[in-house]
Structure formats: C-alpha cells, structure tokens
Amino acid sequence: MAKDLVITNTERQFILDLLANSQRLDGRKSLLQQRDLNINITPNRYGDIYLELKRDDGSIATRLHCKVTAEIVKPKDQRPFEGTFYINCEFNGLAGLNFENYKVGNNSDEFYYGRLIESMILRSNALDLEQLCIVAGLKVWNIRVDVHVLEFDGGFLELASIGCMTALLHYRRPDVTVRNEKVTIHSFDEKEGVKLGVLHIPIALQFNLFPLKEAAEIIKTNTSSENNNELVVLDCTLKEDLLKDGEFIIALNKNREIVQLNKPGGIPISASKIVEFSHMALPIIEETTNKILKAIDIDEKKRNKYAHLLSAENDRYVE
C-alpha cells in the first residue's frame, strides 16, 4: 500500500508508548475512539458518495469517493437468473506521496480490500442479485462500485464498507421494458429510477492488535508473544497501522447478525476475545447505520421539492 514510508525507531517507540498509555498520535484520548465520520451525497446524481474521516482539529484525515454504475451484460452460465456485482478499489498518487500508481494485482491491497467487502455483501445476501435479472440467461444488470482514495491516513476498510453500502442504498438504476426479449432502457425523464434490492446493511470493523511487549524484550526474556496481553486499537492512522502486529475484522449489521469474520495472521486471539469484539462492535455498527440512513433521508427530502407543499396540504385536510 504505502511506498517507501519509513518510520524511525524513535518514532516507532514514541507511537507505541502513546498507545501503551491509551493516547493517540493524532490527539485522541482513547484507543477505541474513532474519528468523526461525514457522509456527503452528490446532488443530482444517484450513488455518488464522498466520505470523510476528520481529526479532532477538523482537518481531513481520510477521504474516499464511491460511485455506483450499472450496465447490461450476459449473466454467468451457472447463475442465469442473477445479476452480477463487483467492487473496484484504487489507491493512487492523489491519496498522498506514499502511494504509487500500479495495476491491481492479486497480492495488492486494492484487490484484498475489494474482495473482502465484495464477499461481505454477496455472501450475506445484502444485495438481491435476482432483482437484477432482465431476461433470464440473456441479459442482467452488472452493478459496479468504484472506490477511489483521495486522501489517506488509515481507516480505509471501515470507510470503504460504509461508502459502498451508502452508495448501493442511494443508487437508482434505469427502468427497462422487455418485449419479445427486446430490452428498452428508459431515461430518468421517462420513468423514475428503480432502487436496488438492499436487504440489510453490513458494515466492516477492524480491530488492530499491538503487543504490550516489544519484540526485543520478548526475545530477551525468551517468552512467547502469545502469552502477552495485547492492545486493541480502533481506527488506526497510517503510521499506527504499519506498526500493528495483527488485526481482526468483523462485519455485522444492526440486527446483530455476524456476516463475516477474518483473522489474517498476526497475534492470536481466543474465542472469548471474538465474543468480546462482537459486543464492542454492535453499538458502533448501530450508530453508523443510523448515520447512513439519516444522510439518505436528508438527500431524498432535498430532491423531492414538492414534499413540504404536499405535507402542508394534507395537514389542512386532516384538521
């Protein structure tokens, strides 16, 4: 992900000492404190979302752009009644000098995070793919979400999952008419756009793990890091992220349904820790889901310029 980002031993020790004292490099006073989330929906467009994580001083730490597009394609032979869904994540020079432009490969962070969020949505049936079918075996909708990193200081996975779900909820695809297998696509001026079948809202949360003992001390005392307690940190900055010794990713919705667990190596954790992380994640997911729904509701009220007049007229009749 980061290119030639060097952290000196002094800076490394300083950051770890801050974490050991429940303080953060950006001024946060708790290891579990997250940065402020802003969701901005582009006017006059569907499924075009900007998201920001802001520091305590109001400056932008991480900024993403999520955009949904749709096109008609031939379905997969194994699933003739289902549409297709794809997420494309891109890091580039816009995100900062520590990032490089390169093609997405199977080992890149873009590919890893994109597939992680994609599987979170597909395996939990958050998006109804059968609703995307136009003509079985011939034509279906392909829904694509492009995630572009504009500024980056950590917190990508959470922000990208929030952005993807917000964009899918907000998006409207063109309506179509089918006659004798001939498909006519209607513009938004002819017919109102059709909402995607979003059945629930899963959101990913990443718990970052740091050892309480430095590696040199572990080697010196001839003890295993598995026997040492770990620090659990939410919403790491970029430099904190580079110093972590493991992570645990959980995706769930406000209905208390766990849809994905991922532990890609690093510090081992017990089953009781997984239960503890699940309970810690739930109120965060509920609050974030409410923010998503509120942002979409505000945007819909702005788009419906006659809503207030109709409401006032109905109130008169009720009286």
UniProtKB/TrEMBL annotation:
Which CDD domains does UniProt cross-reference here? Answer: RNase_PH_RRP45
Q: Please report the organism this UniProt entry assigns to the protein.
A: Hanseniaspora valbyensis NRRL Y-1626
Which protein family is it in?
Answer: Belongs to the RNase PH family.
What's a GO biological-process term for it?
Answer: U1 snRNA 3'-end processing
Protein's recorded name: Ribosomal protein S5 domain 2-like protein
Question: What keywords would UniProt list here?
Answer: Cytoplasm, Nucleus, RNA-binding
Q: Name one Pfam family in it.
A: RNase_PH_C
Q: Where are the transmembrane segments?
A: none
GO CC, sorted alphabetically, is: cytoplasmic exosome (RNase complex); nuclear exosome (RNase complex); nucleolus
**What residue stretches are annotated with the Exoribonuclease phosphorolytic domain?**
36-174, 229-280
Q: Give the UniProt subcellular location, in the record's own words.
A: Cytoplasm; Nucleus
Q: Please list the GO terms describing molecular function.
A: mRNA 3'-UTR AU-rich region binding
Q: Which domain of life is it from?
A: Eukaryota
